[in-house]
Amino acid sequence: MSERTVLVVDDEFAIRDMLRMALEIVDYRCLEADNIQDAHAIVVDQRPDIVLLDWMLPGGSGIELLRRLKRDETTQEIPVIMLTAKTAEDNVIQGLEVGADDYITKPFAPRELIARIKALLRRSGVGESTDRMQVSELILDGKSRRVFLAEQPLDMGPTEFNLLQFFMSHPERAYSRNQMLDQVWGANVYVEERTVDVHIRRLRKALQIDGKDYSGVIQTVRGTGYRFSSRGVPTD
């Protein structure tokens, strides 16, 4: 199983430092942010397995970031635990209604929080290894960064590999060009939307070898963008 990544979003350095040490002891990789803008960029760029989100933050509340994550199909499945000093019942209800998966109030014991993280990851299935993915005769090996079709290695560039890995991790969902730019290129990289179309054409070409054409798994969704679908697998 690959290393789990946890994003801690809190404006108090002491809290982040304490959580980082507690997480590293149990072999979790820890990312940190002290405001919602930086936190959102990290979520888009690095796709943490879970987010620990403080309610009160500079430049906007954690609830604002939570709403943003849960509105976006590409981030809505990332589990979120709210960390806050707010204990009123209506605050708890608000956080859970917006989409928080769990809620823990300050001060808290790090061991209790780690236990909740582990339970939530088990329940959600987030963080399970996607090193090897397969659709019929198409196999993607994340560790070696190689793709095989009918046991033959395919020749594709790093961006096409990253696109295919993203698609195979999120099958049967339509994504806009902007969403793909955020997820594959990164939120802080500025490239034009038509760049996606160029790399989609290259990816489709790479998915064609003698006697096999899997280019149909990358489907154009009119008015939206693209999706990966096993329905595009050719039938013999």
UniProtKB/TrEMBL annotation:
Q: Where is the OmpR/PhoB-type domain?
A: 130-230
Q: From which residue to which does the signal peptide run?
A: none
Q: Where in the cell is it found?
A: Cytoplasm
Q: Sites of the modification 4-aspartylphosphate? A: 54
Q: Where is the Response regulatory domain?
A: 5-121
User: Which residue ranges carry the DNA-binding annotation?
Assistant: 130-230
Q: Which residues form a coiled coil?
A: none
Which keywords annotate this record? Activator, Cytoplasm, DNA-binding, Phosphate transport, Phosphoprotein, Transcription, Transcription regulation, Transport, Two-component regulatory system
Matching PANTHER family: PHOSPHATE REGULON TRANSCRIPTIONAL REGULATORY PROTEIN PHOB, REGULATOR OF RPOS
Q: Which purpose does this protein serve, as stated in its record? A: This protein is a positive regulator for the phosphate regulon. Transcription of this operon is positively regulated by PhoB and PhoR when phosphate is limited.
Specify the protein name: Phosphate regulon transcriptional regulatory protein PhoB
Q: What is the protein's species of origin?
A: Congregibacter variabilis
Q: What is the lineage of its organism?
A: Bacteria, Pseudomonadati, Pseudomonadota, Gammaproteobacteria, Cellvibrionales
